[in-house]
């Protein structure tokens, strides 16, 4: 059996109009073309659908039974097409994103809030994950993509640069380095440091050593979580070096962010996506939005205590 949508539409139009002439006008078909479609449908079904006379057209018993079934097929098809068009127009959809804790705490919630103002019907699910777990979720197709610092990847993952995140010193507001001027790493390393996990500390040390072998980072405290590091700094256990994306949290802890140079150290933040995967229209829309959103990060305050609403102004 090879019933087509055109045949079903022709049948429904004649049944609704009660006339081949009127139905042909509605469908922008010739009357002969419409009659052929109905005959083909009757041939496929093996029954007559209409009783034809010189004065009127009426459904046969078989046609009356078939009419609601045909109508349901056409309605389901129209609904599916409309749904697909809404997805294409980003009127609805769902997105799943894995993101490392630092960027889950500030960057992504701010970006999601701004995006939802444009596309309120899109649902975004954020999975805060350690770096390795974020990539595993991409590889297993659990999420559409992840946002995390650059790192070695497997062949089934593609990474795309998003933005560079510059390191700044995080200090108590009364710390000697909070003087409104830029400071050097040589000066900063004279003070105790609170650092994050081993790979984080190791990469920071490598960046400093690449500039000068004399720049040696010796952590006084090493902790697992960003909020712990900020708490340790607040109560005088040392200063910290964190990417600028952590600045929005500084004011909550009553701390200050200070520019540090010689060298300028930053991190490349990237999209990670499974190779060969085509993003849904909603996910692609958010990816493009996030590129635009992060292009404005350079406008963040550069030093001193950061206003609480700096990220959201």
TrEMBL record:
GO terms for molecular function: DNA binding; DNA-binding transcription factor activity. Keywords: DNA-binding, Transcription, Transcription regulation. SUPFAM superfamilies: Periplasmic binding protein-like II, Winged helix' DNA-binding domain. CDD domains: PBP2_LTTR_like_4 (cd08440). GO terms for cellular component: cytosol. PROSITE patterns: HTH_LYSR (PS50931). The keyword Transcription applies. Residues 3-60 form the HTH lysR-type domain. Belongs to the LysR transcriptional regulatory family. This is LysR family transcriptional regulator. It comes from Pandoraea terrigena.
